[in-house]
Amino acid sequence: MHLNYDTQLKSKRAIIEQSLYHIGGKTIGDLLTPLLLSTVPSSNQLAYRNKVQLPVRNPKDSNRLLAGYFETNSHNLVNIKHCPIQPHLLDDILAEIKLLAEKYNFVAYDEKTGRGFLRHIQMRISQTQNHVLVTLVLNCNEKNMPTFMAKFAPELMEKFSQIKGVCANFNEAKGNRILGDNTICLSGQSFIEESLATTKVDFPQILKDGLKFRLSPESFFQVNTDQALTLLELVAEEVKNYISQCQSSSQSNNITLLDAYAGVGTIALWLAPFVSNVVAIESNPHAVKDGEINQSLNKISNVQFQLAKVENYLPQLLKNGTSVEILVLDPPRQGLDPAVIDAIIKMQPKLIVYISCNPVTLARDLKLILSEKSVDLSVNADPQTEKKNDCLKLDSGYKVEKILPIDLFPQTYHIESIAVLKKQ
Q1: How far is CA 246 from each of CA 57, 251, 329, rounded to the nearest angstrom?
Q2: Low-confidence winner among 46-50, 190-194, 242-246, 385-389 (lowest mean pLDDT)
Q3: Is the residue at 230 inside a domain?
Q4: What residues are labeled active site?
Q5: Mean of the per-residue pLDDT values for the chain?
Q6: For position 220, what pLDDT does the model report?
Q7: Fewer CB atoms inside 10 Å of the end CB: C or N, the chain?
Q8: pLDDT number for residue 283
């Protein structure tokens, strides 16, 4: 936040450029930097974040509840009353949760002793409907949940008409995983819905009318709703342009698209009107369940969800001789597994759209795909490795058309990007 917004956008592009040279070496850096476009700005630079997860603590010898974020490289909690990148409504709800926690004598979880029952507060907000879902993460199982939670939940909902549900998630495991595997609804409903609609006149009518997405406590959804729409539109443009080229060259329009790391199906459902079939691969059963509900909500019939790890599913497709024409990748920060890169190199999809939230692993993965290398995927390259990178033989037959940074996280150093590769 110490940089004005225009400088933030330029700095984020520079981060990707530095990653291309540092991880990819001079050959990759020189090849791809001219294809690195300017960062697409976010329409909202403040109050954009639609999900908040806050650890909690009790001060020494007090039943006050502190909620906030950890200091850098520590587990020292900094209590917050408001955060500039989250909606003000969530600040107000957080303040009320703290008051009710003191009223009901909540005991915050202590990670050193393992005692205390409240671990995290999660809040999600639908920006199109202004509805909120509150989830408390508890250090107990469902049977041992404190009885006062039955009073706490409706009392919180009475204070805010925007809260449509209060849930409890149970996580007794040690470690930094936030959510456990079991969630119940204490009051109201266990989900909220978000809608995304395009104003692109040349897009299918179903996207102009808008798609609905049901969000549960476990659902993954981009935290910047408006910019998520921008990202979806940009990805759809690449798919649409590719299909129009296929039609002009008399190729079949019977195109199957593979959406890897599909989450709740946001990308898969958005791209479904453009192609014949979509296969959405996701390893989280909660996300697959939400994805199938979202498919039903939007009456989309040409998407098939597969509960599987991408690194297991792609090699199986390869073994079965299944061809993939369009591949959309949206991996977590660690990037692509070696088995995924190996499968991509052997499957040779005609169009790859790689959505990345980590410039370092993007640079690494592009290097490996372009050079058809199945090598050590360490991002900590030593000088000898960098020298080898300077003379990489790029013989995969893929051409990177563009790398487009898109700012989903204003006021932070995080940067999303879209890399478009085409088989020549």
Answers
A1: 58, 5, 21
A2: 385-389
A3: yes
A4: 357
A5: 92
A6: 85
A7: C
A8: 93
